[in-house]
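Q: Entry one of two.
A:
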Amino acid sequence: MERGNHCSNSGASKASTLTEASEEIAHLKRKVQQLETELKRQGSDQQTLPSPITSSPSLHSAFISTGQDHDLGLKRYRDGIQFRPTRSSNETWFGPSSLYFFIQCLSKFLNLQLRKENPVHRLHPVSASYHKFLDVPDAGLLANLSCPWTPPREEVATAGVYLSLIQEDYFLNLYWQTYHTSLFPIVDETQFKNHYQSLLVDGGQGRRPSALVDIMIAMCMQYATSTMPAEIQGVLAEGKDALVAGRWHYWRGQKLLKYELDNPSLSTLQCHLLCAVYICGGSFHNMMNSTVGLAVSTAYMLGLHLDPPPTMSEKDREMRRRLWWAVYLMDSKAGMKLGRPFMLSNSYAMPSLPSDTLDAAVSSGSMFAPIGQNVTWLSYNLHMVQLYIKVRTAYSAFYDQYIYLQEGQALWADHEAQASSAGLLNTHTQSFQEWVDGVPESLKLKRQNNGQPISTDFTSIIFEPFTPPWLQRQRLLLEHTYHHLSINLCRPFISFTLKSPADSIAEELAIRCASHAIMLTMITHQALMESTLFDGWHEAFFCQWNAVMTLVGFVMLFPSSTISNQAKQAIELSISVFDNFGAKFPVAANAAKIVRDLFVKIEVLAKPSDLASNAAIIPQDFEASSSSSVSIDQSLSSHDPFDASEFNLFDMAVDIDFWNSVEALWPEFDNISQF
């Protein structure tokens, strides 16, 4: 008793099973949290007293004084996995909101259904040139970069595979119709074109290097090449893969950016943001996360976290605001996708949202026709930022709600905790609907059969004729992003550790998650079949991969749901989506093969047993395995036609989203067989 432990004869109640013990612990922790909340409330109610009440120590202090773990009052990171991707020598951590975590749990679940021991099996759906995606230029390009203040322009400009000026003009013009209008408007078009003209030398025969110019060219080369059939991509892909296109310009821009680290400008921040998009398109999500971190720190250096002073011109004030909220958007994307903490602090007031008025559009440097209803080409960016604010608020509230968790404890310890989480997330539903209602009609995709825009009514969309492609893409991406973020937010309720009770809010959220995944698949498929708006759009491919793997988990856990048939149809529809993307870049073709094989085997597994009942009874070791460290470089030999290793979806997710690896990008890896 002197050490704070209970004696065996102390009369303390004992739980008869591990499950009961876990539920009792969770109940006690919630009680402690309630008591702390009550203490804080009482303290705030008595702020008018002449001196604070200090006679009763806080619960946190009590833990310390009794020898308990002094960190019990702090939030803990819940769940998550650490694994070593194929061709990587180091482990990486991903949190519970990431697709990697979800698929690893799904893989464990399928292995249990097959009742077989099976280590993680290495699968190889890699592209023909995965090791060449970010090949650095030859040594001649980098040899003389020793001067810390002046980049060697001549050497930087001549080595490598670069475009002619007329080719550069083609890709730069493509930027204004795609990323500029449909990603974020962070570059003044007029100022950029003047800057580009100032770089020309030798009577227009060449130009001086510019990091911003190079990264914009790299992005558009990657995008444009990905719209072409593989057999005609030619020199742009260097005979390898569409995502290789532009890497020489990317690396040249990276070398130039190093000279701006201690003297950043708005252009430096623009480069970091666009670099993050480029390398995310190449599936380097850890590099993307690091680059977003550079953007966040640069934004603080430039003082963009403060609302611009009134002495500054309105045009410059608006550009600084758009840049800050672009950083916010990218930080939100990276944090929620990878399940990692946000790097941008929400603890302080932020600058005003960027304006989308006609005056702001006119002074933006770009000339696009007004859309009407007081809507301009800048309105898309404003509503996209507002969507991320609402989703990030709900995300933070959901994952911060329980601050007391033991090491290795899963997201929910019992149905009471799950119901509480579901109720909390459900309270944000109204704010999402308010966002939908606030989107102007001119930015919404119309639906057939009087369907409701930005909804999950499963009606087909309508592409209006005589509408500029940039506006069609804005409408498409606005709804596409809404469904994608809703999938990620609701996916924890497709849970492999605790089956949601029938007719509960948790089950409703699981169905809602699947509904958004179905709708996203329908929209993506229709966009590819009836337009070119999503051709080569890498984010649409990754969102589709995210949606279909979510649907696979849903049909396994909810085979009798009212939308299970639509979910299966959407899985089959996604194969057509991947086939379409796969004609341009091999990793999508590999995704199609994975989903084909997976769908057939899921149908076979669904016949002999009732998975709904099996899912409700998860062995005690499942929870522990879901947060274990995982290595991909393992294999399993078996002659069973339904070998459990074939169902390891964790391997599949890693190979799709980590088909490239920084450690394997160097020229000596030339003899890799093509898939």
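Q: Entry two of two.
A:
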Amino acid sequence: MPAMSEPTAQRVPMLEMRNVTKTFPGVKALNDVSLKAWGGEVLALMGENGAGKSTLMKILSGAYQPDAGAEILVEGQPVQITDPIAAKKAGIAIIYQELALAPNLTVAENIYLGQEIRSGGLGVDRRAMAEGCGTVLERLGAPFGPKTVVGTLSIAEQQLVEIARALHAKSRILVFDEPTTALSARETDRLFDLVRQLRSEGIALIYISHRMAEIYELSDRVSVLRDGTYVGTLEREGLSAESLVKMMVGRDLSTFYKKEPNQRAQDSARGEVIFQAIDLTDGGKRVKPCSFELRRGEVLGIAGLVGSGRTELARLIFGADPKKGGEIRLEGKPIEVNSPQDGIDHGIAYLTEDRKALGLFLDMSCGDNINIGVIQRDARRGGILDLARAWKRAETAFQSLRVRAASPLVPVGTLSGGNQQKVLLSRWLEIGPKILILDEPTRGVDIGAKSEIYRIIDGLSRQGIGLIVISSEMPEIIGTCDRVIVMREGHIEGEVGGETGLDITQENMMRFAAGSAAHAT
């Protein structure tokens, strides 16, 4: 990484936000926050969900107005950002996690959206627009042309269109909000190269991410918010996981993984085999015949590289995808699971990795999301629902899982990722599962909420529920699981922990995942 020139008193920040406070009815989301970003640097902005990052960026984008007394300066000059158009004129652009493009229009039409070049009459001069954005696409190394329809592009390519639109508008301050969430490893590397290129061109970049590895890879400085206040800024040479976590949540990294030595295998009442998969397969398409067992109260991890078949195996167990062969046994008895309802009826619950698309009803309230799986319990004679009973159930779930929301009436789509995950988890716990499958349980969740989810996992295992945890984060697998099976190319390559004699380490798991497990230790 090329060295960045040090900010000095003589060097004017590209962006300076001073004394920013934002009050909503009954809530102070930001309290006297100040922030500086220099041209030619990547400033990472970190904090738990709810720390105020999004609110601060919405003020920068013109979506929100701050309380009186706040100042925003661009290259030392005060600017009034009254709306998104004013932000654009000030040279500010934000690339949101959920892209704001018109999929039915071409790349050029999206770049010029709202500022179309007109021909002699009222028509749009599409040829002139295509020519006008060709330079910026070439500058970014785009593998598509200005006439390509955006809906035909991949997520990474659509993201490139957003960046092209920002650069075409001569943006000098570019904010990336969780930009790698939907990208593959190769696409992420390409984005990182682009970020470095933009930094070398003197653009000020603000990078928001929960992923520590990305922060180490890209950032020159890291500023941290906690509970709506500015905590401090670390220079690159002072970065460490311990210092960042302590700044974000006010406690040490060592408190996040509290897994105690597993004694359940020695307890016949809690350690009996509760679930068995025998040669379970989808016909070899994504899952080759897989066999494993799960004990009562055990946390079994499923690790492996992306595409190894982890999620596909979980969907077969739950009945979300049809099995083509094999057998499932629950408490020693064969069961048929041909649909999710079959899975639920047998006490198998599956928390999907994509909670927004496949898990939650985002426009519905938290309470309705929690109760929807057991709504039949609340039906009185005549089909009238006992709303008081449903409300009490939702309130109890809020308290036990520490959901941070004003009440169960709040739409679940307005909650942070961690609180959405806890609402979804509450729904599955209401069915009283014997087996709970958690697929990427902390994806898109801040580090404080991760700690709470780990606490919940440990508590559920102590209640005797058998848990299966699928995760791409090795520290998460190591810190939460009693035993781990590792998948590779659709089959179970090996196992660590338990009675294998192999420690649950990243090295041992990666040897199985890569097919070189002869040297596992």
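A: Comment on entry two: The longest strand covers residues 27-37. The radius of gyration is 25 Å.
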